[in-house]
Amino acid sequence: MKTIKYILFLFVVGFAFSCTDYLDIQPKSQGIAISNTSSDSLLYKTASEVEAALAGTYGDFRNEYFELDYFVNGDAQSDDAYAGADNPANFQIDEYSIDATNTNVSRDWAYLYATIGKANAVINNVDAVPDLDPARKSEIKGEAMFIRAFMYFQLVQLWGDVPLQLAEVTTISVDLLPELFPVMFPPRAPQAEVYAQIISDLEFAVANVKTVQPDKGYATKGAANAMLAKVYATIQPADWNKVSQYCDAVIAGGYSLLPNYDDLWNNENENSSESIFEINYEGTSASGNWGASMFRGLDWKKFNTPSNDLVKAFDDENDMIRKNSSIIFLDVSGKWSDPYWPQLEFPFVNKYRIFTSNSPQNYIFIRLADILLLKAEALNELGDFSAAAIYVNQIRNRVSLPNTTANSIESMRLAIEKERRLELAFEGIRWYDLKRTGRAIAVINNAIGPNGASIGYQLTPERLLWPIPQNELDNNTKLTQNPGY
Question: Which domain holds residue 77?
Answer without folding.
Answer: 45-168+186-209
